[in-house]
Amino acid sequence: MLKTICYISDSNESESLENIKRIYAKAKQNNLKRNITGILIYQNGNFLQVLEGDEEHVDTTYEKIKFDSRHKNIIKVINNKIEQRIFEDYNFGFSIVKSSSEFNQLNEYLKWLKQADNKIANKVISMVENFISVIG
């Protein structure tokens, strides 16, 4: 059974671009091993991440994140079983939105996803759109 978890958190420290790249590389490496897709966004000291994949792998990954010292004030905003992945085809699964062009690419992808008219997908899309709205 597939599952998605979306969470937001505060960074425990002011993250440099190099630190963010290391976090991204580690997340991508770990999630590829477990066939977890999704998106990771860092903005103004906050993270938003969507994880999707096998229920057991997503739950285990989220539990590890909860105890990661780089995060504080973690709030799980979505925790649902899903029939299909939302971010499976997006930029090899994970991305950090750090420029207007990347925001525009993500925004175009989210618009395309909305056409599916899936309630859970639209809920996740709305969370991501709200989180990144100040970038554009």
UniProtKB/TrEMBL annotation:
Q: Which residues form a coiled coil?
A: none
User: InterPro entries in the record, alphabetically?
Assistant: Acylphosphatase-like_dom_sf (IPR036046), BLUF_domain (IPR007024)
Molecular function, one GO term: FAD binding
Record domain BLUF: where: 2-93
Question: What Pfam families does UniProt report for this protein, alphabetically?
Answer: BLUF
Q: Which PROSITE patterns match?
A: BLUF
Q: Which domain of life is it from?
A: Bacteria
Gene3D superfamilies, per database record = 3.30.70.100
This protein is called what? Answer: Sensors of blue-light using FAD
Where does this protein come from, organism-wise?
Answer: Algibacter luteus
Organism lineage reads as:
Bacteria, Pseudomonadati, Bacteroidota, Flavobacteriia, Flavobacteriales
